[in-house]
Amino acid sequence: MEARRRDGEVVVGGHARQQFHDARGYGRPLGGNEIALAPVEAAHLLYRGDLDAVDGMDFADFLDAIEDGDADGVGARFLTYADLRSRGFYLAPEREGWIADPREDADLAVYERGEDPRGGAVAYHVRVIGERTAVPAATLGNVTLAVADEEGSVTYFETAREGIEGATTFDPPAVEGVLLSDRVLVPDPPEELHERGFYGQPVGGREEADSLQLSLVEAASLARRGSLSVPGGAATIEDRGRTVEGERFDQRLAVYGALRADGVVPKTGFKFGADFRTYREVTSVEDLDHSEALVWVLPAGHAFEPRELALYVRLAGGVRKRAVFALRDEEGGISWPSVAWVTP
Amino acid sequence: MEARRRDGEVVVGGHARQQFHDARGYGRPLGGNEIALAPVEAAHLLYRGDLDAVDGMDFADFLDAIEDGDADGVGARFLTYADLRSRGFYLAPEREGWIADPREDADLAVYERGEDPRGGAVAYHVRVIGERTAVPAATLGNVTLAVADEEGSVTYFETAREGIEGATTFDPPAVEGVLLSDRVLVPDPPEELHERGFYGQPVGGREEADSLQLSLVEAASLARRGSLSVPGGAATIEDRGRTVEGERFDQRLAVYGALRADGVVPKTGFKFGADFRTYREVTSVEDLDHSEALVWVLPAGHAFEPRELALYVRLAGGVRKRAVFALRDEEGGISWPSVAWVTP
Known about the structure:
The structure is a homodimer of 344-residue chains.
Chain A (H helix, E strand, L loop, with lengths): L1 E5 L2 E4 L3 H9 L3 E2 L5 E3 L1 H10 L4 E2 L4 H9 L5 H14 L4 E3 L14 E4 L10 E9 L4 E2 L6 E6 L5 E7 L14 E2 L1 E3 L2 E5 L3 H5 L5 E2 L8 E5 H9 L3 E2 L4 H12 L1 H15 L3 E4 L7 E4 L13 E6 L4 E2 L1 H13 L3 E7 L5 E2 L2 E4 L3
Parallel strand pairs in A: 1-5, 8-10, 12-17, 20-22
Antiparallel strand pairs in A: 1-2, 2-4, 3-4, 6-7, 7-8, 9-21, 10-11, 11-24, 13-14, 14-16, 15-16, 18-19, 19-20, 22-23, 22-24
């Protein structure tokens, strides 16, 4: 069966409507027996041998022709389309005339399993990229990201904007500390500071500890609340933070403060390669649940390399924690996109 | 008990030799009852209250005084020293006069459990850094890295230079392909290319596949061996690689080629956030063992942020694979430092 390109679609007549649309969910009906196929659908039909040619082109030539310098576009979209079809899903392009309320930030609508384009509900709005296409963090949330890697396997990431909610209530007592290098030491601290508030870490193992060491973000946050005093005043802690960490210190401090203000307890995520691991509700360190999320602090305008995203999300999944990103915006606000692996 | 600083050490007399050295493994004997303590040992004795002061300074003042602008130095060394002591190890500084053959790239020698500085064997040569100190990849290998994070917990990384050895023998057949965007398509490939050589990936799911897609590194590697021909010749593949990936393409291609030459089969590590996952011996894709290592390709001169290292190593550990780095040098050679978590 032959087909031809028209206005960014591929038009095919003959038995196409019955054979491709009605029976197998490809394309959108035009008049009579004609249907319009999205380029990716036409590529799939060419690949399977159901279409012989489009404007005389075979599969490889057609893919090359519609690529239009969009290095990762059609290749990745074709691979994703083929992958999802092989898993038994019907799909439609996210375009006016194809689905109701198409999404600008998505490429493919994936219908619920068992449902088809004629009135079916959409399960995933999928944005397709290749593994070499950077993804601005600000565009994550309420979309499923499909990443076609260099070998053509497709990985799916569900993105959301749920943030982190906590239920910890703790009013830190007044304490005195001393700034030592890139830490603050609190000699003979009130027990509740660590045991209930989960601030700091006992020095030298718990048994022999009689000092608590606070990280600079913990210390700066306590100092801002007026709970911690150090020689030189609160500003010396933040100055030290900027000296050893640069701009990232203020970014991390803002995220730390926002989490504590929401009743979430952040502790270092170093062992997970993250900025923080977080606890939803701490009543006592003796009786601590596992941390629920790993938080990476991102500067305004951050764009992920897909491989970087895969690393964060795989790691978080492996330790059964959510991967959450604290994305600063230009005005100093924070949004909280989260990303998880999903297998459609 | 009082002590005083002298030539970068802390000298203490009285019952010090018997009490600190003979009974508890601190310091090195001078004449008579005197011993010399390394600064970190003196800090530990001050912290525990076994020493009252050094030149009149208490623990915090002493730590501050010996810090000498070395932001992560003494704080991290003290925390590591205290951590290892609390785990029951004896330690000595890696210095002439303290241990035989001190290592320049290490800070602390850790004796085998149950052995002490008087003739004991060294279990770990530990280099101590803070989590904000970048580590040149070229310095990894045959040293244990101790990273004190911002909350004072210490993470240990064992580093080696074992490389990756393989036993795969496969001589790829001559095939023809076509360059499509950032992939190469091989229509109707000989079955052995994928099934025995583990080159490429069937397009569109295995059942319906009649084409193999090769990644650009696979294709370029096959083309260099004279096994793959494409319209335009082998150079067009490498050109495309450089267009879509820049310098990293040549780096990754060199690493891919070196692994294949050693009988190791590299496949994409995208799902693990790595460049490659590797198989030691592939005889058939039907009968594939798990991949053994994850490989990250690093440019010459790369220095790790410790948190980045924690991320790679944690991820690899979680999926029971070795974390191996392919480090290019300025002459185009490759060295293979590997890193693993270790709990002393």
